[in-house]
Specification:
This protein has 19 helices and six strands. It is mainly alpha-helical and about 475 residues long. It has three domains: about 90 residues, Fumarase C, Chain B, domain 1; about 170 residues, Fumarase/aspartase (Central domain) (Fumarase C, Chain A, domain 2, Up-down Bundle); about 100 residues, Ribonucleotide Reductase Protein R1, domain 1, CATH 1.10.40.30. A two-stranded antiparallel ribbon has the order 1-2. The protein has a two-stranded parallel ribbon with strand order 3-4. A two-stranded antiparallel sheet has the order 5-6. The longest helix has about 35 residues. The two termini are about 45 Å apart. The model has no long low-confidence stretch (mean pLDDT about 95). The structure holds arginine (ARG). Arginine binds next to α6.
């Protein structure tokens, strides 16, 4: 088929080559941004008298009609077109005749595609921020519900110290707040207009890049036209943000999977977010959490794919860059899906405080508190630590826990022990006494809840 770009070449290409070269299959999702960009371009061309005001109006009207027809389904994409930019121009020219052919004055598909992608990702980025904010709010609501539940905190997946379960959940709120911050920064840096860079060198026409950028809501424009058409940092940055966010969702999913196992039973996931087994009637599988963990690899893959595609490219545009879209679209779609499922899954899960408490009672997680008790009685910490280690070993031998070891036994280790050792190693008291800022005491958890809520409110207003 002969192409719009038939010039020095005949424009007659092999059908296989056409298919290989074409991106309309996946870039058609940017049709709205492509048309909005073209409407602004027509307006700028008219303002600058590069085309007549009458022509500019005709182009804008024609483009608006195409948009409405695509929205309503009256117009279908022609999959034999090379890309969405060619498709829109082709329909416009079919409908308007020669005027349609004027739209592409003072621009190139190189700056056009960079523009479309920025417009599209700016919007998706904002939606992702809203979804992330909703997830943070759901986690924080759960943390509020769980703020008095004593649970074992872990290091090396070994029971370490007693914590409040709400404190643990709030750690995820903090991570996701950083993700939202990173997304906000990425969107801000993305918000720069490349349109008017043209093929690479700029144009001979007296365009107004600032005005065109402003029409599209860009507060800034690319200052170097070669960079403007070659830059895909904004895709990489978004992919990095999404990869880090997925890493957080994956760690959380891993814990949900562990916690909902019979071995832990700290939580119950709602039936709506688990599945059964086709053979084992007793099974309740955390498929959604597992899939979120699994899809993380996919998003990392998208980031790696694009980093690798870009690493050897000479300036300026190269067709390799067409590979940016499937990677970034896949990551965006995946994260939308994961956030969409994670939020109601967290909101509907149920904590099982008795089981957490039972787990906290085993594993000598108050051994640090025992050492601290001796320190308060005047022993240097390292000596107290050693002594407490000996006591734990003795307990293990006798089948005691620290709470059930008789006072006479304690006193064999040190005369400093008195009856007040028992309240000092009570699990709830151990958690409550971790009063340092950010620690697990109820007051500190309240402060963390208030902080996160305030940040969520800020994010909601900013969005
Ligand atoms: N479909 C192309 C892409 O996605 C649009 C830009 C094409 N530019 C060109 N000079 N062939 O990158």
């Amino acid at each position: 088929m002969s192409k719009l770009w038939a010039g020095v070449t005949s424009g007659e290409t092999d059908a296989l080559a056409d298919d290989f070269n074409s991106s309309i299959r996946f870039d058609c999702r940017m049709y709205r941004q492509d048309i909005e960009g073209s409407i602004a371009h027509a307006a700028m061309l008219g303002m600058q008298n590069i085309i007549t005001p009458q022509e500019a109006r005709q182009l804008q009207e024609g483009l608006k009609e195409i948009l409405a027809d695509l929205d309503s389904g009256k117009l279908a994409f022609d999959m034999t077109c090379e890309d969405i930019h060619m498709f829109v121009e082709q329909v416009l020219t079919q409908r308007l005749g020669d005027v349609g052919k004027k739209l592409h004055t003072a621009r190139s598909r190189n700056d056009q595609v960079a523009l479309d992608l920025r417009l599209y990702l700016r919007e998706e980025g904002k939606k992702l921020m809203q979804e992330l904010t909703a997830l943070i709010a759901a986690i924080t609501d759960q943390a509020e519900k769980c703020k008095t539940f004593v649970a074992p905190g872990y290091t090396h997946l070994q029971r370490a110290q007693p914590i409040l379960f709400g404190h643990h959940l709030l750690a995820y709120s903090m991570m996701l707040l950083r993700d939202a911050g990173r997304l906000r920064d990425a969107i801000e840096r993305m918000n720069v207009s490349p349109i008017g860079c043209c093929a690479l060198a700029g144009t001979t026409y007296h365009t107004d890049r600032w005005a065109e950028g402003l029409l599209l809501g860009f507060p800034d424009i690319a200052r170097n036209s070669i960079d403007g058409v070659s830059d895909r940092d904004f895709c990489l940055e978004l992919l990095s943000c999404l990869s880090i966010a997925m890493m957080h969702l994956s760690r959380f999913s891993e814990e949900l999977i562990l916690w909902s196992s019979w071995e832990f039973k700290f939580i119950k996931l709602s039936d709506s977010f688990t599945t059964g087994s086709s053979i084992m009637p007793q099974k309740k599988n955390p498929d959604m959490a597992e899939l979120i963990r699994g899809k993380t690899g996919r998003v990392y893959g998208d980031l790696m794919a694009l980093l690798t595609t870009l690493k050897g490219l000479p300036l300026a545009y190269n067709k390799d860059m067409q590979e940016d879209k499937e990677a970034i679209f896949d990551a965006v779609d995946t994260v939308h899906m994961c956030l969409g499922v994670m939020t109601p899954m967290i909101a509907s899960m149920e904590a099982l405080p008795e089981n957490m408490y039972k787990a906290a009672q085993n594993g000598f997680i108050n051994a640090t508190d025992l050492a601290d008790y001796l320190v308060k009685k005047g022993l240097p910490f390292r000596t107290a630590y050693k002594l407490s280690g000996g006591i734990v070993a003795a307990c293990m031998e006798k089948g005691w826990v620290l709470e059930t070891m008789p006072l006479e036994e304690y006193q064999k280790f040190s005369p400093l022990f008195a009856r007040d050792v028992y309240p000092a190693i009570d699990l709830k008291a151990c958690a409550s006494s971790r009063i340092s800022v950010g620690g697990t005491s109820p007051e500190s958890v309240e402060q963390q809840l208030a902080y996160v809520r305030q940040q969520v409110e800020k994010l909601t207003i900013d969005n």
